[in-house]
Specification:
single chain; 193 residues; mainly alpha; Arc Repressor Mutant, subunit A; 9 helices; transcription; DNA-binding
Length: 193
């Protein structure tokens, strides 16, 4: 439990709330990310969080934006390192799958879609679109958009159903990542992404 003490700037208070929201998301799932729960986690009031985010949907949207920015930054770094021959393309797959699983982006995206809060996904979609635009610069001949589509969909599906599906099929848990890595190499040609 992370209690924030003392007087914080608005920016620090907002950041502490988002970190607590992310922790709740990972620990207990998206339904646990409420203004009341986040306020309790950081020792603030519900009114304080209303001031920063306006509504629970505002908090969820800000959380989605934060996760999307962190995730796309990490994936972008992995792609650039792979292009320079300094990283295995598997790192791209692992960072993408981890973003949706360990970072909570998969559960958050699914919950937003199922609860009808699709607008809150815009920061995630915008961040991915921005990353694709950045990665395409100077590499317009490569299938970056298509690869991004299937990789994100595979990572999202794996974050939601990967463990039980692999178990039901008698496969190792990392099988989806292995398949995604093979597909990435086949689509892009030995790290030429």
């Amino acid at each position: 439990m992370s209690i924030v003490r003392g007087r914080l700037t608005q920016e620090e208070s907002r950041a502490a709330a988002l970190d607590a929201a992310r922790d709740l998301l990972i620990e207990a799932g998206p339904q646990a990310v409420t203004l009341k729960a986040v306020a309790a986690r950081i020792g603030r009031t519900h009114a304080n969080l209303l001031h920063h985010f306006g509504t629970a949907a505002g908090l969820q949207g800000a959380l989605a934006r934060m996760i999307a920015e962190r995730v796309t930054l990490e994936i972008g770094r992995a792609v650039e390192l792979a292009r320079q021959g300094q990283a295995d393309p598997r790192e791209i797959v692992d960072r993408t799958f981890d973003a949706f699983a360990r970072e909570g982006a998969g559960a958050l995206a699914a919950w937003m879609m199922l609860s009808g809060n699709r607008d809150a996904l815009n920061p995630v979609l915008d961040a991915i679109h921005g990353l694709v635009d950045q990665l395409r610069e100077g590499h317009e001949d490569r299938p970056i958009r298509a690869v991004t589509l299937w990789l994100v969909l595979a990572a999202l599906g794996d974050s939601l159903l990967g463990a039980p599906m692999a178990e039901a099929l008698g496969l190792e848990r990392g099988t989806a990542r292995e398949l995604a890595t093979r597909q990435l190499l086949a689509e892009t040609g030995l790290g030429a992404i």
